[in-house]
Design a protein that fits this description.
Elements: H1 3-26, H2 31-102
Helix pairs in contact: 1-2
């Protein structure tokens, strides 16, 4: 994962943490609520980062499969072209044999 690709996610997570700290600052009298709010926002930010990372891994996997399929299709195309040429050559030989036999 490159930093440039995840920069938006990191900035949004920092904004989320800062807004959480602001919220905690306002409700600091109730310690349980402040801790719960902080943990909830940190876990939400971590969840977003984790989701972004998994989506990037999925995208890389799809690109690798696409590349593999493209290589396989090129090999299949080459093999089919060789078989077509062989079949055409065989049919031409048979037609020329039949033509020679007819003119004898």
């Amino acid at each position: 994962m490159e930093i440039r690709e995840a920069l938006v996610d990191i900035v949004l997570t920092i904004v989320l943490v800062l807004s959480t700290l602001t919220l905690v600052w306002r409700v600091w009298q109730d310690l349980t609520m402040a801790v719960a709010t902080t943990l909830m926002m940190l876990s939400l930010g971590g969840l977003f980062l984790s989701l972004g990372y998994k989506i990037q891994q999925l995208e890389a996997s799809i690109i690798a499969r696409e590349r593999t399929m493209r290589v396989n299709l090129e090999e299949l195309s080459t093999t089919m072209a060789q078989k077509y040429d062989t079949t055409v050559r065989h049919i031409d030989d048979m037609v020329s044999d039949i033509t020679r036999r007819m003119y004898r």
